[in-house]
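#help-structures

NK: newbie question. if I give both the sequence and a SMILES, will the prediction place the ligand too? trying with pyridoxal-5'-phosphate
OV: yes, paste both and it writes out the complex. here, I ran yours:
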Amino acid sequence: MLTVIETLFVPARQWKTMNKETFVVHQPHTKLDSDNHSLIAPLYQSVKYYFDSYQAVEDLLNQKREGFLYSRVLNPTVRQLEVTLSKLQNTEDGICLASGVAAITGTLLSLLSSGDHVVGFYDGYRPTRIFLRETLKRFGINCSLAWGEDLNSLTNAIIPGKTKALIFESPTNPTTKITDVASVVKLCKKAGVLTILDNTFAGFHNHSDFDIDIYLHSLTKFAVGSGDAMGGAILSRKELIDHIRHETMEMGAVLDPRAADFCLRGMRTYFLRYDRQCENALNVAEFLESNPNTERTLYPGLSSHPNHDLAKKQMKDFGAVISIDIKGGKAQMEKFLNKLKLFKLAGSLGSQDSLVAPSELFYGDDLSEQEKKKAFITESTVRLSIGTEHPQDLIEDLTQALTTP
Ligand SMILES: Cc1ncc(COP(=O)(O)O)c(C=O)c1O
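OV: that's the protein plus ligand as structure tokens.
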């Protein structure tokens, strides 16, 4: 055994003659024979990579060869994730960053300049709206918000010759509205506006058939699955990814290789989990819709959802998020949240654990009363993210929490 280790270790010749103080710093690496393979790709946790010659480094920096030098620029494990995700979403290339928000802000900061105009949706992820309305404004980039279901409001929001991009969602966070992706793409192409779809709710296997310019994902959700790592992805054509990579490299919000490894591990069970979560979500949504203590139940898979037909047409499945209004206002909503046992009150989604979040408190505090009403957010609205547990247990937990008093 020792002989095998000695022949596989590098640099075996030097370490035999080294002092131990030097040896512990320059430890041997295990190298596998060319016919002996690791089933799971190794995790490249190293920040630094070296070459055997100056020429090799010069060639890398002059883009005459490929390779790795420093993990803020490119890391082999992160690269494996980028290639895997872009293949799933059917894009030419991708970049992974430290969080979903880093993917959103990195994309917008890479593409927009002072004097540009950008459009977002009222009904969508709150931090995206805040970034558009407050942060970008400080850099001389103005934004308008439109309503996802109202194409006229989108047409009116676009300023010809000035609007550079639209960032939107479907299903939307937190109330699962469905955007007519084909019509939005058509409208934006005609106006020369880049389409950026935050596809976090729908997942990597949905919406690839549309001519979307850039797909964004929070990997923290369905990619990782277990809720123990954060990440974000930007998936697009090579020309745009090259540009965004060049820009985000200097911003520094890189994905740690260990988090990338969690994502790669999670992706191996992505379809199993997503399918199960969708199946559970439909079961739970049907139960909630028929419960006398709920008012509006929104799940794109329910035929009562205002955009069910559109969702059926443009999605392969309906996601794992449900929005409900609890009968009896805020007081009953609070009681419901406090009584839940399996569902945990936490601000995330897409993981194996079922979660619940009060929508107004978590996602609507920057909207006016009128805007909240239009976005289907009331004081008793809660967002449920359905996990992979047995549906019977989830329904039992919801039943006891909905039972009055
Ligand atoms: C639609 C959507 N986009 C982006 C994000 C941000 O992701 P992260 O928490 O990984 O920054 C979230 C998080 O909830 C989200 O729901």
